[in-house]
Amino acid sequence: MSLKFICNLFTPEESDVIVFGVPLGKNSKIALNSLRKISDFVEPFDIDKKRNLLENVKIADTGDLKLKKLDEITKKTREIVGKNKVPLILGGGHLLTFFALKAFENVKLIVFDAHCDLKDEYEDEIIKDLDFVKGIKFNPKINDATWLRRTCEFLEPKNIMLVGIRSCDEDEFDFMEKNGISYITPNQIKDNLQEAEEKLKEFTKDSRLYISVDIDAFDPSFAPAVHHPEPNGISFREFSRLINAIDGKIVGLDLTCLRPITDNKVTEFLAIRSVFEVEGKIQEKIGN
Predict the structure, then answer these.
(1) Do the beta carbons of residue 251 and residue 210 sit within 8 Å?
(2) pTM to 2 decimals?
(3) Which domain range does residue 213 map to?
(4) CA nearest 227: which of 132, 151, 149, 102?
(5) How many domains does the chain have?
(6) Which end of the chain is more exposed for a tag (fewer CB within 10 A), N or C?
(7) How do strand 51-52 and strand 45-46 relate by DSSP bridges?
(8) pLDDT tens, 185-212?
(9) Residue 251, class by beta-carbon neighbours within 10 Å (0-12 exposed, 13-18 middle, 19+ buried)?
(10) β-sheet bridge partners, residue 61
């Protein structure tokens, strides 16, 4: 019997949120299985909010795509969006976000990530492993390090906000500044969390939102199971405060770039609890 996300209690027809996995990367199947397994062990009840974050959210898991070409990510996402449901995409490399976003119109993008992913062209062995799919040739222009640069070719940069970024080169920074991409660094969050919340609230107000969570946005002391463990990341408390500052309607969500560690599942627990936090915001807008 294949693993399913949080027990898979509902059918796709009766669900609000449809989960599917994208086996993008050499170890992505292991990562997807680990996330699904741990999802059964994380309590969705929030003791501070005094409510179950998933109480009014029906979720169905339709399994993993059998990738033969990357456009299948767009096709599956568009199918879900066309049924007025919210896709929750588990990955896999961050390149999946580029293809998922093609299924949406009139959205703003919030990316929790340590990296800008705004290089124009790039390749190295880690990136090649992250984007590996048997039978699909690696593209130096469209990959995990360049996906957001390519996204800016069809989504206006002013509708993108990066949260938790702390690693980029000069070219990426110049591109971000010149094109009006909003960003909040971990130091800005730690120095004035309320100001960061207000910035996120203003950016999201009355908007349709796609949220992408690269697990390396978190500090590696909290999330060690990542490919690029950049120091000085955000905490779960900060993530939760920022998510709950959102003032728009979440129409899509993905979780990417887990690199499982044998006998250490702390990153998976954090990842699943983070998904629950976002799902708790989704339920506020269901039907609106």
Answers:
(1) yes
(2) 0.97
(3) 5-285
(4) 132
(5) 1
(6) N
(7) antiparallel
(8) 999 999 999 999 999 999 999 999 999 9
(9) buried
(10) 19
